[in-house]
Amino acid sequence: MLLSGAIVGFVASIAGFASAAPHPAIKRQVTQLRPQYDFIVAGGGTSGLTVANRLSEAFPQKTVLVVEYGDVEYAPGIFDPPLATWGGVGASASYFVVQSLPVPDAKNASAFVLAGKVVGGSSAINGMFFDRPSQYDMDAWSTVASSGLGSIHHRWDWNSMFPFFKKSVTFTAPPPAVAAQRGYTWDASVYGGSTPIYSSFPPFLWGDHNVVRNTWTDLGIPTLQECAGGKKDGKCWIPLSQHPVTARRSHAGLGHYLNATRPNYDLIVKHQVIRVVYPSGIESRPPLVEVRSLVDNTVFNITATAEVIVSAGVFHTPAILQRSGIGKASVLGAAGIPVVLDLPGVGSNFQDHSGSGISWNYSAPGNFTPLPSSMSNPAFLADATAGFDEIPARGPYTLAGSNSAIFVPLANITADYQTIVSRIKSIIDDGSAASYLPADYRSDSTMIAGYMQQLATIAKLLNDSRVPSLESTFATGTSVRAVNLHPMSRGTVRLNLADPLGVPTVSYGTGSNPIDFDVYLAHSRYLRRMLNTTTLQSFGAVEVNPGASVQTDAALIDYIQRTMTLSFMHPCCTAAMMPKNKGGVIGPNLKVHGAAGLRVVDMSILPFLPSSHLSALAYAVGEKAADIIIRDW
Length: 633
Prior knowledge:
single chain; Glucose Oxidase, domain 3; 6-stranded parallel β-sheet; 4-stranded antiparallel β-sheet; 16 helices; disordered N terminus
């Protein structure tokens, strides 16, 4: 097969990353930098590189610098050769390991979260599942953020964001033969971008993939043609963030850095943004950016003449702000940092998707082939490896995790959904909701006001039969997990007092709001209904977990607490887009409340979790942010 110019370029880009070939704009020491820059982006992740790419493109006469903690690396997919165990742990680009404090409502277990430490950020290490939120999530976000009250360009509802979802990715439909074989469906009208960020369907699926898809149909879950167009209450095919021909991971480091060679676009790697500094007052002009070399530990300032954009991620963005004296006064005081701007929302409002699951065995299994166990066959493994290097790629190594999922509204999960909604409204009305907040901002009136508004919004979402509450994915095997898409519990991200430049201290509040357990219970009981469907019964499915003896609410809650996945790697919301008097950190224009020349652009800006994974959203947020900044300048 002849390669198109775009594919040749993509393969060459991958080769460049694999060999760490120098890129004209890569800087590694302060002496290589310009005297000053127009725009400085703190963090070369998914959103940050998107913004930097678009700004350098729109303003050829303005200079853009990205300061990145990590380095340029090849970023393998989550199932690439030579890994021979699907679902195992293989090679990866670099990442931070974040271990939370013990979670009291999960038997004192700790959450483990990974965050990208590489050019490309978490798009270079994630599970490659590339879905979008429902339109109702985006509309609710816009309401909470009060973004409908100002300029039309600062709105964050579905209609305002949809063009940026489309712009942010180039989707390629599968070949007709693959589509027919796998049953793939899609709607080309919800895509249409020409950005070198790619998504596509894999040509390969495991032999038992359709068992659970058929089981979901037995449950009455509708099959949707497409779930990226705003409607998301059914069974979906989800594309992967991979190139449609090579099946290699597509990530921001490739699409928004290596493919954006411009003389005004610089990247310095292996450097940490310590803080931003306002020598003449926080309302005077853009701050200086204080940077530390990770090679020789030298510290220096870089001047931004236009703006500084903090895009260091959910954990490190609040850390940069807190080290800058921007945050909750008591938190800053404990760290010995003078207060520059008292913003209690910095590092607060922390959320992540979580949930438990079920598993079963087959007493009369079908002839499912191939399965991940087939990789232990030397001939099968050799063919799989060869297939990955073909053009187009084929075979098991074109897979990531899963590309099938259900998204189910609470109204379709339990007849008691309105009772759950009423409980939420009750704790808002009597004020007891505040007692479930983290202790260090439980008495802050602005944080309480913002939380109450979030709860009221979540109540409306859970009461809407079009809005998913549960997500469950499947690729192969005998287990599924339920993801609680709109948790009501909140945690915090604070500076590590023993190591202020290190990974912050993260407190997961999972389950601290007891109504979350009403939702976990409903989700678990719903998934157990799979065992009684015609499809699974035809294979003699027998429940293993939670197990036949686990029937009462108390027993099932105990099981959930013992087995819960505390993080599905979707952390968010630590610099929320909300009004300042409701605990917000930024406004709809992405500017930090009360700080000149400073914006935040990453997944920390979300006020609450949407019904999706976060990668596609992070790209779209970067595109929308770039549009806002370009219009302002």
